Amino acid sequence: MSFASSTGSPLAAYGWDEGLENEFTPHRAAGLVPARVIAVDRGLCDVVTEHGPLRAETRPVASSDPLAAPCTGDWAALRPAADRQADREGERAVLAALLPRRTAIVRSTASRDSHGQVLAANVDTVAIAVSLAARLDLGRVERLLALAWESGARPVVVLTKADQVAGTADAEAEVASAAPGVDVVACSAATGDGVDVVAAVLSGTVVLVGPSGAGKSTLGNALLGGDVLATGAVREQDGKGRHTTVRRELLPMPGGVLIDTPGLRGVGLWDAEEGLQQTFAEIEELARECRFGDCAHRTEPGCVVLAAIEDGRLPRRRLDSYRKLLRENAWIASRTDARLRAERQNEWKAISKWQRQMYRERGRDR
């Protein structure tokens, strides 16, 4: 019987399914057990297995590449502590391998050093929290939508704190204009209004993203059905909140799994070309009708995108935002290419240095 169909297995509540069971077959033959990463600390992580939660080392799967490092949501092959006694490395269980990720939400690292950072793995739905009590920032919404689409997960925009405004219809329409093909729903986690509607559009493993003060943890508690996540007040002078969530953590909820994340101050794109195309799908569709295939939508004759702006079908703000995010994505891509070229060059230098040393040693031995 698979874990997905076993009502007594904790892994069924965390998303284990028949496909994962089949994929895990060689690991199980090697004596390893499946586990899902709940949260990650330095060198250690919290995981859940078919026998319940435990603490494990991440050293065997550690990587200098942030993209390859274990993160919340990963499925892993775990070597239980009992099998390690002969290794004289301690009694703690270890992650022996990570299963390939079905989806991954990736942003550029905070240092903008051309590396990507995985925020959450194996996510089915990205719930973008937008506070109705703060100034609406459509550019930030579009940026988060690009990350969500690029991940392979399905984005949903949740307008929070609906109890603090007179009505939500205008805001919903405004956000919908910047989120083609995306469900936009409003709710008040404080009063419970609309939470059932939000829950209905979320499925599978859900990650909550958005800035501090957007009400992610309060919404998370409403979805979890209890005060599980820490919440804090928002400053009146600027509408910003404190980082009450200090790490990414995965929790089972009715009908799925929830990952709460710390507030994102900076959300840099990383290799998000396809995500941008989906976020700005109406511009991409209009551009196919332009007279020139390489139309930049600036002054070219026969530009259908500019014509749509002129007749009001397309807000100019959308085109400006699209251009801005395209430039940013191209810049980080060029940084990544330069870093990879430098790394390859350093590898060749190291090989050449080793070869010269070997030839010198051979010459001395003659």
From TrEMBL:
Give the protein's cofactors.
Zn(2+)
Keywords, alphabetical: Cytoplasm, GTP-binding, Hydrolase, Metal-binding, Nucleotide-binding, Ribosome biogenesis, RNA-binding, rRNA-binding, Zinc
- List where in the cell it is found: Cytoplasm
Which EC number(s) does UniProt give?
3.6.1.-
User: Domain of life, per the record?
Assistant: Bacteria
InterPro entries with a match to the protein in the record: G_CP_dom, P-loop_NTPase, Ribosome_biogen_GTPase_RsgA, RsgA_GTPase_dom
Name the job this protein performs. One of several proteins that assist in the late maturation steps of the functional core of the 30S ribosomal subunit. Helps release RbfA from mature subunits. May play a role in the assembly of ribosomal proteins into the subunit. Circularly permuted GTPase that catalyzes slow GTP hydrolysis, GTPase activity is stimulated by the 30S ribosomal subunit.
Name of the protein: Small ribosomal subunit biogenesis GTPase RsgA
Q: Which organism is it from?
A: Actinomadura fibrosa
Q: Name the gene.
A: rsgA
